[in-house]
Amino acid sequence: GFPYNQLIGSTSLDPRWRTIYEDGSPFLGEKHPAMETLRTGKPCSGVIMGIYKPNGMLSWISINTQPLINPGQTKPYGVVSSFHDITERRQAEEGLRESEAQLREAQQIAHIGSWSVDLSTDILRWSDEMYSIFETDSKQFDLSKTAFIAIIHPEDRDIVDKTFYDSLANKLPFQIVHRVLLPNQRIKFLQAQGIHYYDNNDQPLRSVGTVQDITERVIAEQKIIASLREKEAMLKEIHHRVKNNLQIINSLLNLQSAQIKDPIVTAAFTETKNRVRSMSLLHETLYKSENFARIDLFSYVNSLCSHLCRSYGANNSDTKVLIDIEEIELDLEHTIPIGLIINELVSNALKYAFVENGCGIINVKLMKSDNRLLLIVSDNGKGLPKDVDFHYTDSLGLNLVSDLTSQLRGVIKLDNSNGTVFNISFPH
Predict the structure, then answer these.
(1) What are the CA-CA distances from residue 211 to residues 128, 154, 190 (Å)?
(2) pLDDT per position as a tens digit, 95-113
(3) How crowded is residue 404: how many other Cβ atoms within 10 Å of its Cβ?
(4) How many Å apart are CA 351 and CA 423, to the nearest integer?
């Protein structure tokens, strides 16, 4: 960075030179390789020096020196020096060191270690974090396949070995979760994955991969699963008790109705019992279910309609109830009112639709339509009287259907032209 005329006649002792060693300490002029060679008569090779230019920029040079000695003498009369600008190389090396440091830091934060194995020599290489994960000292641990296999939990060794070699034979990446057994008998859960490289003759050369410590995640998942199982058991017990309580109510209604002689009051008790039974059946279905978030609607509706047929003496007649339920996931909040609506409409059809010929067909359908659900309950009976407005009627059952439809934020339509068809749609 100095002009040519300022360099002529200068020596390494010139105070304008601001030079440093690689560690940043001052590189004194008398320690310059040229001065060392003059004093000792020995050459210097590859001495690294940092030098500040007049503009403050730091450059790095590599210095080689060779003594000039006259024949028959031992003391040099001069020195030949060569200088190589290695600034770019130093910057690349520092960038590489910084990248490696960042990689080590990232691996440490994420608990991820990296490994590689030379498949021709079985030489295994680990990153620093690998030793941390396996809680072993790099100076004491025998980094070999045998030592690695010994750390793996005995129950997982075969599957780890098989996964690796199957992947190698099929030329596919692999991923596996396995356990390791530490010297203090603690268990860690690790997720290992890797890929393989082959030569032009498809012979395996080396494998590389990562290992992540997922022990905390696995333990958290196990706690969640245990908690879910506990809650499922509690929900199962709740549904069981609700079902039993509803059955007790139903039994009380049966005992009370047995004392009643008035057929109108008896019919009202029967309707009430069927409503209670519709809710009891739902809790019974949930109690038997493996998944409380998903109710088996077909099984529930089928049981409900079978009960109603028995209740109204249609079980042995020619009246049929046909059920068509799509696979739809509904929660308890929606299923209870839907069950009660079906209970009321099927009950009405069984009681009134086929009075004249004593037989017929009742259809119950539940299907998805865009972002809504469509419930259709129809029969091919005589239909409702023309002067009946189901929105304004003294029928408790039809009033209940209207109220439950409103609860579902639904819309109800009646087609009375050929039998009775109730179309109820609500958001889903």
Answers:
(1) 12, 18, 6
(2) 777 776 666 666 666 678 8
(3) 20
(4) 20
Fill in the DSSP letter of residue 29.
G
In degrees, to the nearest 5, what angle opens at C-alpha 264 toward C-alphas 259 and 265? 40
- Dihedral (Cα; 44, 48, 54, 58), 10-degree rounding: 170
Which band of pLDDT confidence, cut at 50, 70 and 90, is reported for residue 315?
Answer: low
Find, among 234, 333, 326, 233, the residue nearest to 282 by Cα.
333
**Contact residues for 416 (Cβ-Cβ < 8 A; gap 6+):** 383, 384, 386
The residue type at 44:
C
Band (189; pLDDT cuts 50, 70, 90): very high
- Residue 359 is encoded by which pair of tokens? 């037989």
**Least confident piece of the model among 101-105, 224-228, 248-252:** 101-105
The CA–CA distances, whole Å, from 231 to 225, 226, 236, 238 equal 10, 9, 8, 10
Percent of the chain with pLDDT over 70: 85
Radius of gyration of the chain (CA): 44
Q: Quick one: DSSP state of residue 350? A: I
Please, are residues 107 and 130 in contact by the beta-carbon 8 Å criterion?
no
Going 13 to 19 to 23 to 24, the CA torsion angle's sign is positive
Quick: pLDDT tens for 69-86.
Answer: 998 888 999 999 898 998
For residue range 7-37, list pLDDT tens digits in order: 565 555 555 668 889 888 988 878 888 889 9
- Measured CA to CA, the distance from residue 35 to residue 80 in angstroms comes to 11
Q: What contacts 45, CB < 8 A, 6 or more positions away?
A: 64
Other beta carbons within 10 Å of 241:
12
Amino acid identity at 14: D
Collapsed DSSP state (helix, strand, coil) of residue 48: strand
Asked whether residue 64 carries a pLDDT value surpassing 90, the answer given is: yes
- pTM of the full predicted structure? 0.47
Tell me how far apart the alpha carbons of residues 189 and 194 are, in angstroms, rounded to a whole number: 17
Nearest to 193 by CA among 134, 292, 115, 278: 115
Helices (H), 128-262: 128-133, 145-151, 157-170, 215-258
Half-sphere exposure of 92 (CA within 13 A, CB side): 4
| Residue carrying the six token digits 């199982």 | 229
Strand, coil or helix: what is 403?
helix
From first CA to last CA, the distance across the chain in angstroms is 77
